[in-house]
Amino acid sequence: MRLGTLSFLLMLTACGGASNATFVADSANANAGDSVRVRLFLTTLQGGVKVGAKVAFSVTSPAELSVSSAETNAQGVAETRVTLKEAGTATVTATVDGQDFTASVVFKAVEMVPTPAAVQFVNQPA
User: Which of 10, 62, 74, 124 is the most buried (most CB within 10 A)?
Assistant: First the structure.
């Protein structure tokens, strides 16, 4: 049985402590079981890029993450990939440098009716 596509919130911006964050998920549709890249863009309140910030990622079941922690690169980006194994909803959360700061992206998979691979006639049509 083929499961349906994931739809996701593309951007969510949040403020907390001395940082601003924007969460972005790849914009392409993905089938359950596929991997979707999620990136956290981190800046200072003054708009500068925040490099080397420790980011802890977590996700709700039935999803899995490729990495659960990362540091922001020279562009202020930390990323992980999330895989949703079955129809359902998963929320990815990022926590930055122990601040009271989190942002979430919600993925939702919808089960689809399988498409038959072939049609076979028992009796030839008239």
Answer: 62
